[in-house]
Amino acid sequence: MYENDIYSGEHTDEDRTGVYGTGTYNYSNYDVHRDGYGSGPNSDNDNKKKKKSHPVLKRVTAAVLTGVLVGVTAGGTMYGVYRATGMDEALAEKETTSTTAEISQADLREAIKDAGISLANTDTITYTAEDVSTVVDKVMPAMVSIVCNFTETANFFGQTFTQETSGSGSGIIVSENDTELLIATNYHVVGDANAITVTLTDGSEVSARIKGTDEDMDLAVIAVSKDDVEETTMKAITIATLGDSDALTLGEPVVAIGNALGYGQSVTSGIVSALDREIELENGSTGTFIQTDAAINPGNSGGALLNMDGEVVGINSNKIGGSNIDGMGYAIPITSASPIIAELLERQTRTEVAEADRGYMGISLQEITPTIAQMYNMPQGIYVVDVEEGSAADNAGIVKGDVITKFDGTKIDSNADLLNILTYYAAGETAPIVVQRFENGEYVQHELTITLGAKKAVAQ
Questions:
Q1: The whole model's pTM is what?
Q2: Number of domains the chain contains
Q3: Among residues 8, 170, 269, 301, which one is catalytic?
Q4: Which of 15, 132, 152, 331 has the most crowded CB, counting CB atoms within 10 A?
Q5: Range with the lowest mean pLDDT among 66-75, 240-249, 263-272, 370-379?
Q6: Half-sphere exposure of residue 4, counting CA atoms within 13 Å on the CB side?
């Protein structure tokens, strides 16, 4: 159709009148319908010249080449173009490393070059998104779903009411020892839980206990006893490989796996949207996170953000940045999280101690609410109103006026926090405790060690 003889021949007004009407179209006079790119009779000599310099032909050629690029970019049916340009032979010589795309971006550029096609800029060439099924198959056996039971307390008109509720999250099996499977997750997923249930890769459910937490970094490690796991399940699970989040680059593809909305494990994918993104957290502190456009929804917290090698490069958190933002998910960089997780892995996994055997500190407390802390410029924690002489607290060096902020690495914000953690410590056990003490016009941190005593029997 695009031979040059369609532009030759003389044209008349009569020829033009029948182009879109009832008359006969004269293809030899097509020259008059070229939007002004030449007119009048064309001789054979003119045709020979137009083979080299005809402006319409230039535009036709440009359009064809543009079509080639668009077709390659969209992955359309361009087999004829490949054959016409020699790209089929060039591509046949290339080895592709992509698991899903027919060719990689680098191979595509090289094939175009080998075929003799000159492009001003090949950076805009794209290819089919990479298949992530290999990554998922590798890591999914290390993923767990977490369901926690909580007790919520509310105060209405001076009356205190409690109710049982539950929440869901995700976790990653990051280690094991002789007796336990060890799972990393977010602190806000398990921190206040009365009971924790973990669903493993084959759907089996087991109980878990908190091994250690770091509320400031929103990290926790929970433990599952191997005695509670069937042998077939143990063979099915894997230990996740922790990667290097410092090696991530903008635009790099990533995969998020987690228990979204509590429905069970699901997979989303996207790219690294930003690195070292500073976000202010609910407690007023600022953290640095990985931003991704992979969907991270409620229930995804504690799950894995993975690179294309199937390595964990981040721990997802739906809590960061809020849940009403579309296309902006956040994850704790694994390079920052790894040292904390390693320390939590070494903690002693604790079980609840019978009330009669629980440790006793010997102090009277007053809770410091956020309002009081702000009003009086005090650290948030629990205020020591009084210390019993000769008690465990007295022997540890705790004095009246101290503000207890941590017990055995766990942040203490309220009386309930301290009472809850003491349910896992027996009399005679030793633990580190952090207090803030008012000295020379400011609060100064002191790290002490306390050996818990036994509660004195109440005289009848």
A1: 0.65
A2: 3
A3: 301
A4: 331
A5: 66-75
A6: 17
